[in-house]
Amino acid sequence: MAIGAPAWAQSNSSHHYNVSAGSLQSAIDSYAKQSGRQIIYRTDQISGLRSAGVSGSLSDDAALDALLSKTGFVARRGPSGAIALVSAGNAQSRVAAVEAGDASGNQAPPAQEGLQEIVVTAERRVSNVQKTAVSVSVREGAALRQQGRYSLQDILQDVPGVVGGLTLDTVGGKSDNAGSGITIRGLSASVLATGTNVSSVPATAVYVDNVYEGLGGSYDIGRVEVLRGPQGTLYGRSATAGVVAIHTANPELDHLGFDGSMEHGNYDLQRYTGAVNVPVGDDLAIRVAANRYSRDGYVSREGGAMATTAARAKLLYKPSDAFSVLLGAQFEANTSHTGGTQYILTSPNRMEATSAEIGSGKTKLRQYWGEFNLDLGSVNLTWLPAWRTFQQDAALITPSPSTGSLSQADYTPKDHFLTQELRLSSPQDGKLTWQAGGFYYENWLTAFTSLTFLDSGAVSFTRSNDRHTKNAGVFGEATYRFTDDWRFTGGLRYDYTYVRNEQLYNKNTNGFPFPENPPIWSSLELTGEQATRRFNNITYKARIEHDVTQDNLLYAMVSTGFLPGDVQVATGASGNPEVMPFNAETVTSFEVGSKNRFFDRRLQVNVDAYYYRFSGYQTNGVTVSGNPQVLSFITLSVPARMYGGELELLYKPTSNDEFQLDYAYVNAYFVDRPELFARYAAATKFDNVVPHTINAAYTHTFDLKDGSRLALHGDARFLSAHSNSGQFLTPDLVAQGAGQYVRVGDEIIADFNATWTTSDNRFSITGYVRNLTNNRYKTNVLVQTMEPLNVKATPYDPRTYGLVVAVTL
Q: CB pairs under 8 A, 24+ apart, for 67-73?
């Protein structure tokens, strides 16, 4: 391809090159040849445009810009007349404006001059993240792979305002939903009855490939979008705190290729991932991906060992630009061990390891889903059906009030999930854009649980569950453009939830269960209407946004979310089984924010502030007996407030340097504490909420003589002092000095990785180290007895390191 502005000026605008998902690359190549311009891109960039389903025609410079703007691509032009496509659609793309270069395309373009344009679907539409008036952070799949981050907890570790998430050893270990344990802006799910393994509702909704609580979000990742704040209008169920949306790679119609990686690390970590993309004709493609991961335990080799095997197949059928079908099937099998070692706090900041029994668990998961898209011209129709199954047979080893351990056996032979969503949406151009639809969720669960004291062999309780849950919701949301700069968005949603949780609960009431005390059983069976609860919830959103300039956005909004209620059985204050009801919870959020880019889009500054009114945090995790050894509970509800803010700063002073600084502040506290709560719980604020977090990162890329690149990346996370307890401390325990045991000081965790990439971007080698200083501070502190204090904890993961070799063909 020739280079030069005169050739561009003389280009024949009468030539039109039709663009569709299957012909995009050839259209761009033909257009570049006819216009006499050099257009530099990588083949993997084109997948971003294909996956967005753009169509149109190329005839001149303006037509190219218009096409790219639909997906967030930028045609960056240098003085020489060369064009480089800056891609946001593909997570691995990082290319730049090219001032001059080899017209043959043999030389790889240098790193991007400005910041990337990132495309998201956070609000169920394709949009530029800087033009999306919601607090959303994006993590790229390629960067996560280079840093050895695959579990949900690791993926979310540096997202401001977010803590928690399942680790790889707990995926399918005890919880059947990936949102368990995620706290966003201090907002977390209710604490249900102790020892239950039923399918509870998390406060954060996790979606994988648009499937609620979908599978396969730990490999072949394209990008992860994290939405902070209630998303009750578009996402509804369990989106009270926010949404985590994981997008894996889809089939590509005109690309035969392979992506694979191999990782080895300490603690005998082994990971093998591969994906094959095969086009079949012009309108059909298949992508098959597989993943194998295994690792030993960090202290006890067998006690913390884990392994997972997963495979996914996707089939894309796109006979025209107006119609497409994406079908998928996912398989996953996990084996994890617990126990082996437990840590006792001999002083507030000293942990000693002792041996413990080893438990094991196995889970099997299946998922089948589809995505049907039909463009009817004035309206787009999307249907998303999914079916998921979960089976579990596990013995989880946990600390006990003695020096021994507890074994909780969880057997779940049946746990089936059906979800369906039907959505209608208008085209994205025009003054008024809208989307409306319906969502349906149904779960059938049969589960059995028992708790045994391993030192005595005595059984504390047994529980059987036969649970049926249904949720049906309808929603609508619209955005109206008053002017080119002012927009208003309003949304409304109604949800009906039905829960029937039939249980048989048997409790050993004969005190602390030593062998010499024969069990005395007390039973309660929950059936029929007593086991049934129905909830009706309405949520809404109202938002105003203003484009101060093309690169500066201001917005303000009020939004709501809800968690449906529940009913459980647990050991009550009397020591006998009692019914524990849970009401629906609601949150109202007030938020203002701004998204900005400065200095020729080299500096990005996003900031937001929020205030939450939480109707009532409910917990069944407060021991009301006055003695931690005697596990007896009641359901307590207490209203709460949260306020804070987040700052995300990204600066790229040169094409080879990038700085990132994130800061989050949150204050989550209880108000109007009921007398019972104040009597049994000393807490005035939420536990496990870090008031101040700072994430800082720096990346420098060296352009080597052979065209390859070496990128060095370092990051550090600061966590301010906070309480990290798995329970509410009673006033008596605080008087005993337990507060200092659950208190964690200021902590810093640092990581480093280096990646060498060939000039054609087809091969890379990454070495990484996580937790450089081996800072194993205490987490999940649990106070067991009062006199003397017996406190157990879990240390933070130790220093880990590994090597990742990746290839793209």
A: 67/19, 70/126, 71/119, 71/126, 72/117, 72/118, 72/119, 72/126, 72/127, 72/128, 73/45, 73/48, 73/49, 73/117
SS3 192: coil
Using pLDDT thresholds of 50, 70 and 90, give the confidence band for residue 90: very low
Residue type, 68: L
DSSP H stretches of helix in 628-770? 675-680, 731-735, 738-742
Q: Which amino acid is at 554?
A: L
Residues 56, 64: Cα–Cα separation, whole Å: 10
Spatial CA neighbour of 794 closest among 453, 300, 179:
300
Which runs of E-coded beta strand occur in 348-404? 350-375, 380-399
Between CA 110 and CA 99 the distance in angstroms is: 10
Cα(363)–Cα(743) distance, integer angstroms? 35
CA 60 vs CA 16, 429, 748: distances in Å: 8, 21, 53
Closest by CA to 240, choosing from 496, 557, 617, is 617
Structure tokens at 89: 């659609």
Calpha distance 241→247 (Å, rounded): 20
Q: How far is the C-alpha of 741 from the C-alpha of 784, rounded, in Å?
A: 12
Alpha-carbon distances, residue 363 vs 391, 396, 415 (angstroms): 5, 13, 11
Token couple for 321: 């630009």
Nearest-angstrom CA–CA distance, 426 and 424: 7
User: In 3D, which of 172, 250, 236 has the Cα closest to residue 208?
Assistant: 250
Peptide bond into 160 cis (omega under 30): no
Report residue 549 as tokens. Answer: 């300039």
How confident is the model over 621-643, as pLDDT tens digits? Answer: 676 765 555 566 777 888 999 99
Tell me whether the omega of the peptide bond preceding residue 795 falls within 30 degrees of 0, making it cis: no
H-helix segments, 80-158: 141-146, 152-155
**Distance between CA atoms of 57 and 689, rounded to whole angstroms?**
52
Q: Is the dihedral of CA 714, 46, 244, 365 positive or negative?
A: negative
User: Residue 372 half-sphere exposure, CB side, CA atoms within 13 Å?
Assistant: 10
Q: How far is CA 300 from the centre of its chain?
A: 29
Whole-number Å distance between alpha carbons of 661 and 663? 7
Are 778 and 795 in contact by the 8 Å Cβ rule? The answer is yes
**Whole-angstrom Cα distance, residue 85 to residue 103?**
15
Looking at residue 29, its amino acid is D
242-274+281-742+752-808 placed in CATH 3.40.30.10 = no
Q: The dihedral of CA 52, 55, 61, 62: what is its sign?
A: negative
Tally the C-alpha atoms within 13 A of residue 791's C-alpha that lie toward its C-beta.
29
Q: Supply 666's token pair.
A: 């949150």
- Whole-number Å distance between alpha carbons of 677 and 636: 6
Compute how many other C-beta atoms are within 10 angstroms of the C-beta atom of residue 706: 9
Beta bridge partners of 497: 471, 535
CA 203/CA 714 separation, integer angstroms: 32
**CA distances from residue 80 to 2, 3, 784 in whole angstroms, order as listed:** 11, 7, 72
| CA proximity to 569, closest of 534, 531, 618, 533 | 531
The Cα 798–Cα 776 span in angstroms is 6
Per domain, the residue ranges of the chain are 5-113, 242-274+281-742+752-808
CB 136 within 8 A of CB 120: yes
Task: Give the range among 57-71, 317-331, 587-601 with minimum mean pLDDT.
Answer: 57-71
Q: Per residue in 250-299, pLDDT tens?
A: 999 888 999 999 999 999 999 999 999 999 988 999 999 999 999 999 88
Position 11 pLDDT exceeds 60: no
The side-by-side arrangement of strands in the sheet containing 83-86 is 39-40, 83-86, 74-77
Q: In terms of residues, how long is the chain?
A: 809
**Tokens for 427?**
């085209």
